[in-house]
Amino acid sequence: MKFGKELKSQMVPEWSEAYMDYEFLKTLLKDISHFQERNRPAASSLGNTNPPGLTRKLTLYRAFSGLTQRAMSPRSPRSHDIESQPILVNSVKRSNGEEGFETRFLMVGDAGGEYELVFFKRLDDEFNKVVKFYKAKVGEVMKEADVLNKQMDALIAFRIKVDNPKHVVFESQVEMSRLAAAVEASSEATVLTASASTAMRASRKVAHMDVIDEDKSNSGVRSDDISSDDKDSEGSRKPRGLTVRPPPLEILERVTINKPIETPRSTIKGVLNVPVQTDLKFTKENLNKVEEQLKSAFTEFYHRLRLLKSFNFMNMLAFSKILKKYDKITSRNASKSYLKMVDNSYLGSSDEVTKLMERVEVAFVKHFSNSNRKKGLSTLRPTAKRQRHRVTASLGFFAGCTVSLIVALILIIRARKILDKSGRHQYMNTMFPLYSLFAFIVLHMVMYAGNIYFWRRYRVNYPFIFGFNQRTALGYREVLLLASGLAVLATSCVLANLDMEMDPKTGNYKAITELLPLGLLILVVVIVIIPFNVIYRSSRYFFLTCIFHCICAPLYKVVLSDFFLADQFTSQVQAFRSLEFYICYYSSGDYKRRENDCNKSDVFNTFNFIVAAIPFTWRLLQCLRRFFEEKDNWQGLNGLKYFATIVAVTTRTAYSRSHSNGWKAVAWIASIVAAVSSTYWDLVLDWGLLDRKSKNRWLRDKLIIPHKSVYFIAMVLNVLLRLAWLQTVLDFKVSFLHRQTLITIVASLEIIRRGIWNFFRLENEHLNNVGKYRAFKSVPLPFNYDENEDEDDE
Predict the structure, then answer these.
(1) Sign of torsion over alpha carbons 97, 99, 100, 103
(2) 108 three-state secondary structure
(3) Of 156, 221, 259, 618, which is least surrounded by CB within 10 A?
(4) How far is C-alpha 443 from the geometric centre of its chain's CA atoms?
(5) The predicted structure's pLDDT at residue 315
(6) Which residues of 648-662 are buried (b: 16+ CB within 10 A; e: fewer)?
(7) Which domain holds residue 670?
(8) 423-436 pLDDT, tens digit each
(9) pLDDT value at 171 more than 70
(10) Is residue 70 part of a domain?
(11) What is the pLDDT, as a whole number, of residue 84?
């Protein structure tokens, strides 16, 4: 793999603009190379031809250079003194007051020197950009390390209060004085060198309980005092026991519990202005919660450090590669002096991140993994999810079975002339709505799998945006496997139902044949909610959590994964109605006679209005929650958009029931208002398009897909597919299609529209993260440390 592709694949997607622009620098080198080719003397090309009578190249007659590199003579013309260097790199003060590096190119007078001058100017800009970004990010993690210091102090004091280790007794007041001196000395060690602090620790002989044995270092993070020679049989490091400090229990006087994780109960208390309990309660349950929160905080913090280290390494490698290309093209030796500057710069010489990673590993292994290093590092360093061949093989098998079953179904219908039988209308009105539910689910899963494929192809960081676990996030193959598996079950049930219906031996047992779709639905529900670690349990749990948050929409803080799922439900209105039909059909006993009297029921018709409005109501409540919580007027407007959609859906349902002119006029007006507002919101706010001032006219400044026509096609499709509601208002009738079939087709078009919307919605979210360099999620910390008391103490 070429380095340019490797660099792109290894980039942190949200930091792509902060990396060195390797491809652009390559284009500058190509300009230099093209200039040299255009201005190469003709004699040079003739010199490559062999004189008459020689059959070998002239290079084969030159002196042998040897198999080992020979040391150059001091008088060699290749010796690199300051006068023969093509560049000089100096540290300068930039116009904005920041320090930077500037390269002075000394060979401007040479042919093509102006091209090389442009190259080094752009190289300096890229290097200063990378250093500035890296220094800023390192500063951020150092501040976060200080916060984690205080959190760990409070955790260990909290742990002591809960566990109450009564066997910890200090023998005398002299011992207490020595420990107090040790604490004071450790606070002064922040200005000492590492070797000096090690000597100080070795001079203290304390043989009591190991409470906190991380010494403060220059980086501001406590590091476990560990001997490289002291390791147990499992490879875990053992503390020396020489740096024991007394429990910092006084910290608990300045610490309160942060607001707990939001639940419906806490939300209701907040609305009723019930004071939140922030006092410390020293219980095992609270200790476990605190430890879990800090464990997540350390894991996320370590992930940041790993990304920073990768950013440093890839940029250092990029500068080395591009300068070697320059030397090769120009036959100069500029890389040595420039790379020396790179090594001496903050980017090449700072080791804060590496040291911080080591200290985080030591602290995590000790405090959260019970000194089991293997277990601790496996949590901190999650391995990439492996693509298993059995998933691909199973996917191929189920996909083949699905196609075969569909072909068999078509052949059976044609061979037995089922469409010509008198009971076909009854079958379409009863069985088709039951099985169409699974068709909607499978189609939505296929569209989602396609979204995942293209998100990965164009490097949209969807696991970070949704908050998926990197280890367990499903890929498009896994989603297609689930979809094809469900398709096989559904089509098998359809075939079994038809076969049992046509078989004289089982044709009279209608009650049994009609139970097949209900059995399949129950099986699917059981698979989704089963608590055992089978069939992607973590993904199922995440999905069920999001569903619960949608149902309790105003009682939970709205995050992207919740409102994204609620948006998916707004495109599954017909699926909700199918579930309503399941309840009516099987609870009323109609299935025993294969008769559908649900449409004659006032209760069913009333719930038909309610069920259609449920997913839009969830989104409306989510928008209202964000409007009151974030004071964002746009969320209020978004809520009005969903309210208009609720009105449009209910009026169209009313017209389909009564077919009166009054309801038709109201349905037309409401549907037009909802369609226009929703289309505008999709294209302008959700997709970020239709910006006439953009450098990509009518699109946006930054695009992930290189072909602009894709965006215009997507906009047109969004408008056309949104007009599927016209079928309800205009009451289209197609002679060769049953009414239930037409309803299913219209519902499927809306699912396809939602699948297209998904890609561009997440693309816009990703680009917003890129613009803000937002590559990490914020993890709530358990303790609130009172900084004012610290200032008063000082």
Answers:
(1) positive
(2) coil
(3) 259
(4) 24
(5) 95
(6) bbbbbbbbeeeeeee
(7) 389-771
(8) 778 778 888 889 99
(9) no
(10) no
(11) 62
Residue 239 is predicted with a pLDDT of 43
3-state DSSP assignment of residue 778 = coil
Say yes or no to pLDDT of 687 above 80. yes
765, amino acid identity: E
45 within some domain: no
Total residue count of the chain as it appears in this document = 794
Helix axes 573-587, 516-529, angle to 10 degrees: 120
d(CA 189, CA 447): 59
In angstroms, the CA 251 to CA 786 distance is 10
Give yes or no for a contact between 221 and 360, defined as CB atoms under 8 angstroms apart.
yes
Q: What share of the chain is helix, strand, coil (3-state, %, to 5)?
A: 65, 5, 30
Structure tokens at 702: 């930054």
Nearest to 487 by CA among 428, 432, 430, 405: 405
Answer yes or no: is 615 within a domain. Answer: yes
And the tokens for 502? 């046509």
Please state, in angstroms and rounded to a whole number, the distance separating the CA atoms of residues 599 and 429: 11
pTM of the model as a whole: 0.81
φ, ψ for residue 12 (rounded to 5)?
-75, 115
Is there a contact between 690 and 698 (Cβ–Cβ < 8 Å)?
Answer: yes
Find residue 614's DSSP bridge partners. none
Structural domain count of the chain: 1
Q: How far apart, in whole angstroms, are the C-alpha atoms of residue 757 and residue 767?
A: 16
- What per-residue confidence (pLDDT) applies to 224? 41
For 652, residues 6+ apart whose C-beta sits below 8 A from its C-beta are 667, 670, 671, 725, 728, 729
- For residue 286, the 8-state DSSP code is H
Please state the three-class secondary structure of 638-677 as a single string. HHHHHHHHHHHHHHHHHHHHHCCHHHHHHHHHHHHHHHHH
State residue 233's pLDDT score: 39
Q: Which helix (H) or strand (E) segment is 222 a member of?
A: strand 222-224
Handedness of CA 289, 295, 300, 305 (dihedral sign): positive
The answer as to whether 467 is a domain residue is yes
Using an 8 Å Cβ cutoff, are 334 and 84 in contact?
no
